[in-house]
Automatic annotation (TrEMBL):
Compositionally biased spans, kind Gly residues: 141-150
The protein's name in its UniProt record: Small ribosomal subunit protein uS13
Region annotation Disordered: where it falls in the sequence: 132-185
Keyword Ribosomal protein included in the entry's annotation: yes
Source species: Nitrosopumilus piranensis
Encoding gene (name): rps
A single BP term in Gene Ontology: translation
Amino acid sequence: MEYLSTQEYRHIVRIVGNDIPGERKMLVGLTQIKGIGYNFATAILDTLKIDSNANIGHLTDENVQAIEKLISNPVEGNFPTWFLNRRKDIETGNDLHLLTSDIPFTLRNDIERERITASWRGYRHLSGLKVRGQRTRTSGRKGGAVGVAKGGMAAPAKKSSDAPAAAPAAEAAPAAEAAPAEKKE
């Protein structure tokens, strides 16, 4: 109950650059941080011995700093490597846990590296197809057009400001009528 000490209630708590409303429960509030799921939040609260049902607005500054330290470097908190979301990073070779905007940035870099190396996965990403060996005969059909394309009129030509638009259409009509008359004879 140390975290409920003389510290006043805060309506917004900032953890790892995310503003979390103070009325949220600890477990739900931590899962609002991108990269922290339910199991990881539970493990953090169990490690720091914080009640997961208390409101996050009652946290002391020391507890917020301890949570941030554990989130930023979970390996030092004796979390197993399988608990991290990026094991054996290709660039550094270290086990990492990515948070917030690092997740989509790293994902884009990984896909771009696959495309540049012209791997099979890169080709599948380029084509917008399934990458991990799933079947494509009946599933994964969202997005592209399915079936026969509708026929229709061609796009209208751009009008030039010099000539009137009705004049070329009027000249073409009499020529079309005259051609069938010659064939009848």
